[in-house]
Amino acid sequence: MSTRPLTLSVLDLVPVRSDQSTGDALAATLALARTADELGYHRYWLAEHHNMPAVAATNPPVLIGMVAGATSRIRVGSGGVMLPNHAPLVVAEQFALLEAAYPGRIDLGIGRAPGTDPVTSYALRHGAGGVSDEAVTRFPEYVDNVLAMMDAGGVQVAVQGRSHPLRATPVATSVPAIWLLGSSDYSARLAAEKGMPYVFAHHFSGSGTAEALELYRSQFRPSAELAEPRTFLTVNAVVADTQEDADRLALPQLLAMLALRTGGRLAPQQLVEEAEKVEVPEAHRGLLDAMRSRWVIGDPASARDRLETLAATYGVDEVMVHPVAGSWTGTEPGRSPAREQTLRLLAAAGA
To answer: pTM for this one?
Structure first.
């Protein structure tokens, strides 16, 4: 464990509440990103999910361009791009352009999961003649392709006996930082083998984190880009002035995750007052409590202490906070004040 102070970053799925349009949710994300930038958070990552009523983060490169343009210093990246949904050259081109526009500020986090349901996954990969059925099994090869094509020298592609140069952008002077993401040991092994930085989705999985990080660290092979293992922790968090307020603000996202885990109806995120009217079935209360126990929910001092403890437990000096606080009835649609408050209170508690 490093003795450096804890570094805080942000993960954003661009949640859509029952009182918001997609445009409102995007406006709230830009306000949240500006808040993180002003408070000194290190990086701001945006996820890829498709066809979900409560998530507007469908296109990380577009969102990264918006957020990077609205901020001045914070690193902005994908958490992550689900590579089997896309041709490697398209991903390489997108992130090479982002890096050219915002040099030294772009992260490309790559994942293997579909980020959606099977029908939408099929539409992503085949709806426009797009990606092969072998995209998942060829994931390691696709990662290599992205890495090579973003290099300033590009790659040589043999077609009909002739060699053709292929570059993601004409004159690259730098490349984004490239991370592998995962929620199982597969990506941990692959990242270790390729000498790449790695992040385990602790905020989503909640179990297996220690095992995945130990596997990554023990099997890591140094590369030209990375001499030793590099990782951080992701955590769902709700921070408010009091424990009672934090518990109430956490409820909408807890119920949304409960619906996802139990096959319930997916819908835009409820407002706090709507969520408090929901009767959770007895059979699901254990799961709800288990999720709540893995999240950081509390007042500033206790939340900051919990983050410090988690960082020490998993041997990291960076924690990426996923601020999941809900909103009260009457909240301005284009803002998410409780999410912004989570970032402000955590930053102030560590000052």
So the answer is: 0.91
Contacts of 163 (CB under 8 A, 6+ apart): 156, 157
pLDDT of 123 over the 80 cut = no
- Residue 132 CB contacts under 8 Å (≥ 6 apart), including other chains: 125, 138
Q: Which of 139, 5, 150 is nearest to 80 (CA)?
A: 139
Compute the half-sphere exposure of residue 268: CA atoms within 13 Å on the CB side of its CA: 13
Residues 82, 48: contact at Cβ < 8 Å?
yes
**Rounded CA separation 44/67 (Å):** 9
DSSP three-state, residue 112: coil
Specify burial of residue 329 (Cβ count, 10 A radius: 0-12, 13-18, 19+): exposed
Report the distance separating Cα 79 and Cα 277, nearest Å: 33
Per DSSP bridges, beta strands 231-239 and 318-323 are: parallel
Residues making up the chain, counted from first to last:
351
Residues 194 and 230 sit within 8 Å (Cβ to Cβ): no
Residue 203: its pLDDT value, please? 81
Q: Which residue from 348, 306, 327, 295 is spatially nearest to 31, judged by alpha carbons?
A: 327
Considering all CA atoms of the chain, what is the largest pairwise distance in Å, rounded to the nearest integer? 69
Confidence band (pLDDT; 50, 70, 90) for 128?
A: very low
Q: How many C-beta atoms surround the C-beta of residue 182 within 10 A?
A: 24
Residues forming beta bridges with residue 82, ordered by sequence position? 111
CA angle 152–155–158, rounded 5-degree value? 160
Distance CA 167, CA 275 (A): 50
